[in-house]
What we know:
By secondary structure, the protein is of the alpha/beta class. It folds into two domains: 11-116 and 272-283, Aldehyde Oxidoreductase, domain 3, CATH 3.90.1170; 122-269, Aldolase class I (TIM Barrel, Alpha-Beta Barrel). It has helices spanning 11-22, 52-61, 89-121, 139-148, 166-172, 174-184, 198-206, 219-231, 251-255, 266-269; strands at residues 36-43, 47-48, 65-68, 75-76, 81-88, 127-129, 162-164, 191-195, 211-215, 239-243, 261-263, 276-283. The strands form three sheets. The chain has a six-stranded parallel β-sheet. The protein has a four-stranded antiparallel β-sheet with strand order 3-5-1-12, covered by helices on one side. Helix 1 (11-22) crosses helix 3 and helix 5 (166-172) crosses helix 6 (174-184).
Amino acid sequence: MGHQNPCGMLGSELERFVDEDLGEWDDSSALVPEVEARAVVLAKEDCVISGLSEAKEIFAYFGLAAEPLFEEGEFVPAGCEVLSVRGSAQKILQSERLVLNFMARMSGISTLTRECVLRAQARGNVRIACTRKTTPGFRLYEKKAVFLGGGDTHRFDLSGAVLIKDNHIQLQGLDECLHRARSRASFTKKIEVEVENLKDMLRAVESGADIIMFDNMTPAEISKGVELLQEKGLRNRVLLEASGGIKPEDIDAYASTGVDVISLGALTRNARWIDLSLDIEQAL
């Protein structure tokens, strides 16, 4: 498995990323003199910066000393230096692309997440969460970027909670799914039921579900569901989550329905990369 590095990345994982980027031989290193240099990573647009600790760890792997100039999750105006690095000019340029890939991807997710969180907060105390729609092998960093943007990471994997989805219900029915979940899952795990109509919502709540996920339902339908639960005195029994095809521009409408959580695959799926650059400032 490799050793655990101080910043959290497994040694074997870091080496895999480095090997993927460098290949067997870097011919371009012959173009760079063997001198010490100072370089900076620049934000070329407004963003919420993240990936700084990963960048520092990658630079350290190459024997370079890096100093973040902002805190993770902090807003950065365009044109600001976000990190400085000193050491071998060859090593700085060898590690440049891997560092920028981490930071640009993670900062893009954090920036989009922050935008969505601010939209939701304007409508009340509603959490913004991501989903498991993540890049295989990169989930930890994508979900960390959501957290740094102020969002909720939801489940990291299938072991995080029991989620009864439409295909489970199709195979053996909602009642049997709930029975098996209660009898087999640890008492520490919450049971969440994905529903597509208010009839199933009511059955799930009355049968003891901890969380209801309104899947691909309109804000108007969800509002009716919240009102129905209030009328029956059941609203305080459950957390309510809206999910399924929700876009950032839809958040206002969904946050007004009375749900507790809005989850968006778009946070990791649709976030664009932030424009960052690494510039050599001087030879030392």
